[in-house]
Amino acid sequence: MEPSNSEGAWGEDFPVIANWLDKMFGEEQLKWELAWLSYAYQGALRGQPRKGHAHFLVGPPNCGKTLYNTQVLGHLFGGHMKCSEYLIGRTEFNDHLFETGFWTVDDEAGSGGEAHVQFSSRVKEFVANDSFVVNAKFKKSGRVFWRGRLSITLNNDPVSMRMIPDLDMSTRDKLMIFSCNEFSEFTRDFKDKVVAELPHFAAWLDDHEIPEDMLDVRFGVKAFICENVDETSQADSRYSHIKELLEIFREAQLDPGDEWAGTCSGLLQVLSKLSGCEVLLRDVNTRKLGWGMRHLSSKGCDWLKRTETKGSHRWRITN
């Protein structure tokens, strides 16, 4: 979208949009949203798109996140294309997606297992790369240079939030995840007012200078993950029971300042003798315990460290 000639301050020429975003994001989150959006818009406007984070909007139903995703962001980037079928692996045909620079997923139900692994992998690929394999029916596959944006909306219930990729250390730096607040000021002509104000909002974005402490070399802006969403996502992760096991072990076996070192097999033997672990251990073997501990370690769990000594994998757990 071409910006207007407006040079007003925040909200001066787009009061409806400004009021909506102020309330939907809140002061702290809004500055990160505007940093991500202005960086992406400025590059797209000049025909010089740059790599950027995948964008997630988590919130209650009817807060306006889908309207914002498809109408505000969709118009700013010249249209959008829904990509859920491709991201979760239901289809490999993706040629139509590269006709626009903005992909959307709106309020899809979260899925687990291999579908979630596939989804997480493709989100990471989307952000990190700018050369993609293009597959079309009855045509030879090829590659395309592409630096667009991906924006995903989801409700804040436990099932929907399963769509959030595993927030390990290799993924966290590629995401912007926001928690949207309720908004109750929608009217029948709200959408029309927003669309009319968009060129003025675009002008403000084009002039916006990102604060220096928010800048990042690789993706323009530092990653942002809302703390509440982060905590909820980790609590509902497939390895949450492993974390509970280790916390029971730390509380029962380690005094403050103590450390335990050993293998997964040794830890499993100790856990099997602890009261309260019987239920949690029903579906846990050495391999699953090891995968869970690697996952927690990759998320930056500071009391769990992995070491390699003479080819054997050992762990250190501190209190």
Domain count: the total is: 2
How is the largest sheet built, in terms of strand order?
2-3-6-1-7-10
CA distance, first residue to last residue? 54 Å
3D shape: elongated
Radius of gyration: 23 Å
**Any idea of the CATH class of the largest domain?**
Alpha Beta
What's the β-strand tally?
A: 13
Helix amount: 40-55%
Topology-level CATH name of the largest domain: Rossmann fold
Structural class: alpha/beta
Largest sheet features: 6 strands, parallel
Topology, element by element:
Layout: H1 15-45, E1 54-59, H2 65-76, E2 81-82, H3 84-87, E3 102-106, H4 113-128, E4 131-134, E5 142-145, E6 149-155, H5 169-172, E7 175-179, H6 190-207, E8 215-216, E9 220-221, E10 224-225, H7 227-235, H8 240-253, E11 259-262, H9 264-271, H10 286-298, E12 304-309, E13 312-318
Could you characterize the architecture of this molecule?
The chain is elongated and about 70 Å long. The longest helix has 31 residues, at 15-45. α1 (15-45) packs across α6 and α2 (65-76) packs across α6. It is built from ten helices and 13 strands. It is an alpha/beta fold and 319 residues long.
